């Protein structure tokens, strides 16, 4: 996202079996301007004013659906390269480099490789992890995470999807599956008796529960902000009880316990300021342990290092689109849809201003309120499994503080220090990315990016 800033992983070392040290080299490949690096490498999921230093360097633990960031010690933003502690300059001169480090928890399962994430470009996949001690450049001292109290900093990665008929939407956080069933499909207005259409919707939920290893299922009824608590609370409870009773007769796996609760309008998922937000808030949510993958061998194969080109390689022939921005011709090229461990996928694409004048391309963050996030990001992208009639939305990084949970897009950020990301000079090209869940059996997906046409993209 930053012109003339080259990012390289020069070391990824597991320490004491439970810590991970990442070393990054930043190089200013330009010949004229100095480049600031502290804001560029900061963790964008922190409150504004605390996004600084190298706190945004991390790894993706795909199987645990966790975004791992550097430890938080007392008195410093992170256990990572710090301008004051490490005596680093704020700028990188043209042709010069700066070496950075970040110390974090090691990903689960003792993997041989990891996906390294930074705020300035697409995730870097299949980076080998060494169990040898880190080899550091002269002058760098990597702190011992066991020498002082440190707090792990992780973000839960949630992958949403929904049926094309809008009857249900699902969120997967790696541990639990939350299936939100549309009350408009399940019930008539102000009623708690299941409709004939509810049978097919509940049948899919029952199959997922049958495939789950968990012994308990939580059924929760929710309403929108219309009406009063005196109406919404008992109605949401009766609807949850109706779904619980129906699922109990459809689930064939023995020993499953069901619990039903109603919350009225007190737990909205979306804004009640729009009709679409209200429709999605009228729901019955079924939560249970995530079903086990059907083909673990395929997942292990996906985790093996391969010769698949990186996102900077040439795009797949034919996977292009064109449009207009501020009257200038704008082009889009998909450079890959790559399968990652844990049922995740990485989509990469590039946008280019083909015109002779400067143009703003603002469509990447424009979407409905159910796809809104804490800050602006390139989240106006969807993947569709046409055969299964299911749509996949960009993954969310969740940050919980007490009772409040903020969601950030697991995709290219277009806010903060990158407020001009959507501003393209003539010939300017930028690469974007998004993380998604991928269906187990699909080999190609329909990809829709902003206002560009739909493209059939093979999964690598």
UniProtKB/TrEMBL annotation:
Domain of life: Bacteria
Biased composition annotated in UniProt, kind: Low complexity: 295-314
Region (Disordered): 156-175, 262-327
Subcellular location: Cell outer membrane
Keyword entries, A-Z: Cell outer membrane, Membrane
OmpA-like domain span: 174-292
Chief location: membrane
Membrane listed as a keyword: yes
Name assigned to this protein: OmpA-like domain-containing protein
């Amino acid at each position: 996202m930053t012109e003339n800033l080259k990012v390289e992983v020069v070391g990824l070392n597991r320490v004491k079996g439970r810590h991970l040290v990442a070393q990054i080299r930043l190089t200013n490949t330009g010949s004229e301007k100095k480049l600031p690096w502290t804001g560029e490498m900061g963790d964008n999921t922190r409150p504004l004013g605390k996004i600084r230093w190298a706190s945004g360097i991390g790894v993706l633990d795909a199987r645990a659906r966790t975004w791992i960031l550097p430890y938080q010690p007392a008195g410093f933003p992170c256990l990572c390269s710090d301008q004051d502690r490490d005596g680093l300059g704020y700028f990188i001169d043209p042709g010069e480099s700066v070496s950075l480090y970040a110390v974090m928890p090691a990903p689960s399962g003792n993997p041989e490789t990891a996906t390294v994430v930074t705020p300035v470009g697409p995730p870097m996949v299949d980076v080998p992890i060494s169990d040898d001690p880190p080899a550091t450049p002269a002058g760098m001292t990597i702190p011992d995470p066991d020498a002082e109290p440190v707090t792990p900093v992780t973000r839960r990665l949630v992958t949403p999807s929904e049926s094309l008929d809008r009857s249900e939407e699902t969120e997967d956080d790696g541990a639990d599956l939350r299936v939100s069933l549309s009350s408009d499909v399940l019930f008539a207005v102000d009623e708690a008796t299941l409709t004939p259409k509810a049978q097919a919707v509940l049948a899919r939920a029952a199959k997922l529960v049958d495939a789950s290893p968990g012994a308990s299922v939580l059924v929760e009824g929710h309403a929108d902000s219309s009406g009063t608590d005196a109406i919404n609370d008992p109605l949401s409870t009766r609807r949850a009880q109706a779904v619980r009773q129906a699922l109990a007769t459809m689930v064939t796996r023995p020993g499953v316990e069901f619990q039903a609760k109603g919350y009225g309008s007190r737990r909205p998922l979306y804004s009640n300021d729009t009709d679409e937000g209200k429709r999605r808030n009228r729901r019955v949510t079924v939560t249970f342990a995530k079903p086990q993958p059907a083909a673990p061998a395929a997942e292990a194969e996906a985790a093996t290092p391969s010769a698949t080109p990186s996102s900077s390689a040439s795009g797949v022939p034919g996977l292009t689109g064109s449009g207009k921005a501020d009257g200038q011709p704008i082009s889009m090229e998909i450079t890959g849809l790559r399968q990652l461990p844990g049922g995740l996928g990485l989509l990469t694409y590039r946008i280019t201003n083909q015109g002779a004048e400067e143009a703003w391309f603002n469509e990447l963050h424009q979407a409905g309120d159910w796809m809104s996030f804490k800050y602006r990001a390139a989240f106006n992208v969807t993947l569709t499994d046409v055969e299964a009639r299911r749509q996949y939305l960009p993954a969310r990084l969740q940050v919980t503080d007490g009772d409040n949970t903020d969601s950030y897009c697991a995709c290219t950020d277009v806010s903060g220090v990158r407020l001009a990301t959507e501003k393209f000079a003539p010939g300017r090209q930028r690469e974007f990315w998004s993380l998604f869940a991928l269906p187990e059996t699909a080999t190609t997906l329909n990809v829709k990016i902003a206002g560009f046409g739909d493209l059939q993209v093979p999964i690598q």
